[in-house]
Specification:
The structure holds 2 protein chains of 2 kinds. Chain A is mainly α. Helices cover about 65% and strands about 0% of the residues of chain A. The termini of chain B are close together. In chain B, helix 1 crosses helix 4. Chain B is an all-alpha fold. Chain B has a single domain, classed as Non-ribosomal Peptide Synthetase Peptidyl Carrier Protein, Chain A (Orthogonal Bundle). Chain B has 4 helices and no strands.
Chain lengths: ~500, ~90
């Protein structure tokens, strides 16, 4: 778990690091452009450029409209925080505060109380209750009260305890629907609250400013892109020059992501359209149905799935980070040259930076500073295991918590077996990779020092994806292992 | 253990961090207030090494004082952490 991959360069030096030809020019390092974007006419041009990018993104089905809100926030001066809060609130309201209403409606029918519950009213009440609860917790933390001394642990225990309660027979009917309504309203914000509670203890900021970055308007999943308020403050442009550089970095990233998104579409058309290669899921399903594709096709679908996943992650995270940069927050990229990773730990960091940060912040460091303090290597390994296996598993279990409502707790837990295996192998491998890592660059030449390690790392994650790929609740660990054995030629 | 004077702490930390940056090929200048972790110049493995070094050299138990990476995010922040009364061993 490392962060070494991304270059730290913010100032407009006028000196290009690599004078060679680049697909996307380093506009953020051109002093003339940086100066121009600080002027009114330059800002108009920047807005036009961003508008053009948004149209091009729209043409290929990607929503980059938040960039308009980002520019408004960037130029709002001292009203920036208010505007961020309003923009975030607007988008959350538009998306129904991210509550899975289909699940809740189905649950109400299953519980036989659909005609007795006014779903929109319950949803509105739950949103009000949840945000009131967040506000109280943040305010108490900000006032120095010891609320949830260990926020992450406290939140996870409380959330999972309520999930267990939903399974009790005495909650059947309306209480179960209300409890699930609360949980499904709370769930999208759980990790934001975890960051918020940590921040509130050290940031003397009003509660609404913390809430303004709970699922900020530039985008997020359950993983906060930009963590919490204190992290964002560190990356916020303080001067007009910093803002100009940050915004030009945002434009540069957006342009790069646009090219990748077009490349992804072409790649999909080539392999699935022209070459008629089946999707990974179809390949697995056909094998399980007793009609396996040739091994070569199987391997090709695994590799294509891996490449497609990397491109999807880069595009999806890139749009979010580019929007945040346009708003004046110079966030690090989410996916950064993952195929250049020479160690397993490095890949994990380069693949999904903010998710890795979440696991490091909430599982790795708390474990590291508390457990096995007298045993250097064991301490390191155990903390890595806590993050990559336990944290990873918990995160996904909570992300897919609707399975508990649909399948029951036991079946939902059993359905995690393949993903649990994936996280276990990942954690052990990354842990060993961390322990073996030597900081000095090894003088072993390009082939042995760079190419072979990179191929090994990519190959490892490509194969292990078989256990992490979609359909992971529907097929057992053994079925996936059988598919892998077939690909390896162990079975027929 | 006596409290180390600020210049000495800063000097030792600057030397330690500069060495780690050089090992990573980062030869950019380093000032006392430059961000180390949130800027991406150092990573979590470096943080781990730094924590163990501070624990050994200054007897600080991070689980007692509440771990917060931002308190290690610059040479100045580390110097302040090492010398704060609550961080000193009994």
């Amino acid at each position: 778990m490392s962060v070494e991959s991304q270059p730290y360069d913010g100032a407009a030096t006028g000196v290009l690091a690599k004078p060679s030809w680049r697909l996307i020019p380093q506009i953020d390092r051109d002093p003339t452009l940086v100066a121009g974007v600080q002027e009114a006419h330059g800002r108009v041009l920047l807005c036009c450029g961003v508008g053009l990018l948004a149209v091009l993104f729209w043409q290929i089905g990607i929503d980059f409209s938040s960039a308009g809100l980002a520019l408004a926030c960037a130029y709002a001066g001292r009203y920036r925080r208010v505007l961020i809060f309003l923009a975030t609130s607007l988008l959350l309201w538009r998306s129904g505060f991210l509550v899975d209403r289909t699940f809740l409606a189905r649950l109400a029918i299953d519980e036989g109380v659909a005609d007795r519950i006014d779903q929109p009213l319950v949803s509105a009440a739950m949103v009000a209750i949840t945000f009131a609860l967040f506000s109280v917790l943040l305010a108490m933390r900000g006032a120095g009260a010891i609320v949830l001394r260990r926020p992450t642990l406290g939140l996870l225990v409380a959330f999972l305890a309520l999930v267990v309660v939903t399974q009790a027979s005495f909650t059947a009917g309306t209480p179960r629907v209300l409890l699930w309504s609360f949980l499904m309203t709370f769930q999208p914000y759980l990790w934001f609250l975890a960051y918020g509670l940590v921040d509130a203890a050290k940031e003397r900021a009003p509660v609404w400013q913390h809430l303004g970055v709970f699922h900020p308007f530039w985008g997020a999943t359950l993983t906060p892109f930009g963590k919490g308020l204190s992290y964002l403050r560190r990356f916020e442009a303080k001067t007009s020059e910093e803002l100009a550089v940050t915004q030009l970095k945002g434009v540069k990233l957006a342009a790069w992501v646009l090219i990748l998104a077009i490349g992804k579409i072409c790649f999909g058309e080539l392999v699935h359209g022209q070459l008629r290669l089946p999707m990974f899921d179809d390949n697995l399903l056909q094998y399980l149905a007793g009609h396996p594709q040739p091994r070569l096709v199987g391997w090709a679908s695994v590799v294509v799935f891996f490449v497609d996943d990397l491109l999807s992650m880069t595009v999806f995270g890139g749009v979010i980070v580019a929007t945040a940069r346009l708003a004046g927050f110079r966030l690090l990229r989410n996916t950064y040259r993952p195929l250049q990773s020479a160690t397993l730990a490095e890949f994990w960091n380069r693949y999904y930076f903010y998710y890795k940060e979440l696991l490091v912040d909430h599982f790795f460091y708390p474990t590291f500073v508390r457990c096995f303090r007298g045993h250097r290597r064991l301490r390191m390994f155990f903390a890595t295991f806590a993050a990559a296996c336990i944290g990873n598993l918990l995160f996904h279990f909570i992300r897919d918590i609707h399975f508990v409502g649909e399948m029951g707790l036991w079946r939902a837990v059993v359905g995690e077996q393949s993903h649990a295996f994936y996280t276990f192998v990942l954690a052990v491998s990354v842990g060993l990779s961390q322990m073996r890592r030597v900081p000095q660059p090894a003088p072993r030449g390009w082939l042995r020092g760079r190419l072979l390690p990179c191929l090994w790392v990519s190959g490892f994650f490509c194969v292990i994806h078989i256990f992490d790929a979609p359909l992971d609740r529907e097929h057992s660990l053994w079925q996936r292992a059988e598919f892998l054995f077939y690909l390896l030629g162990v079975t027929t | 253990m006596t409290t180390t004077e600020r210049p000495e702490v800063r000097s030792r930390m600057r030397h330690y961090i500069t060495q780690r940056l050089i090992m990573k090929g980062d030869l950019s200048p380093l000032s006392d207030d430059d961000l180390l972790f949130t800027s991406g110049r150092l990573d979590s493995l470096d943080a781990v090494e730094l924590i163990m070094s501070i624990e050994t050299d200054y007897g600080i138990n991070f689980s007692d004082i509440g771990f917060d990476l931002t308190r290690l995010d610059s040479i100045s922040a580390i110097a302040a952490l090492v010398q704060q009364p609550s961080a000193e061993p009994a």
